[in-house]
Amino acid sequence: MTSLIVVYFSLVLARVATFVAVLPLLGGRDMPRTVKAGLAVVLSILWGSAFWDRMAISEWMLQTGVVPWLGFGIALGREALLGGLIGYLFGLFLMPARIAGDFLAQEMGLSFGNMVGITGEINATALSTIFEMLAALTFFSLDGHHVFLGVMHGTFEHYPVGGGLPTLAVPQLVAGATAVEEWGLMLAAPVAFCLFLTTIVLTLLARATPQLNLYTVGFPLRLGVGLIALLLLLPGIVASFVGVFSRCGQLLAGIL
What are the boundaries of each domain within the chain? Predict the structure, then answer.
């Protein structure tokens, strides 16, 4: 009985620990390892005690003596794969904000100043970091962390610990990754349109006055227009995050 409890808790910990490690807001480089480890242990105890009676008993668990390592290793890998996949899916919630920030930073000429993002990305631009911070604050203000815990709680109900591999909708997963790219470009579209109009104006000025140095005038002008457009359109961009989160939630429900 003692060995069965140890095996069960190890499987629960494998699922929860990989979920915490892959989750963007918790698995970043800036998050202390002790915090991540403590959170994984606490959540494992919580869910392990709640779903002890739903554990899928396999034949190798009932054998006396030493637990067969082959079956335990396969079950451990299954739990780690499932937890990592759930964490990756929740990473799609912040992916559109990062894509929009990277695209606008490249168009405004800010891609040269890279920094460490809030999700641990070393080569994150300043705009992508700002967009991710706004998206994360909006997500938490909408009680999105309850969605994290609720979905993870649901996986223990639908995919009991020690059971077989779940049947996930892989085509929907691939289509979701593609849709996230589209949503990120749509978030950046209003500011990108302003930058496009600025480029047209600069082209007309260059044709009217050939002595105008397009690089000297164009770079600060595009940067200024982009910053002003971001300031004026920021409320609409933040409101668009809500729609993106809703679509990501529907995508997550379709995959799981």
Answer: 2-255
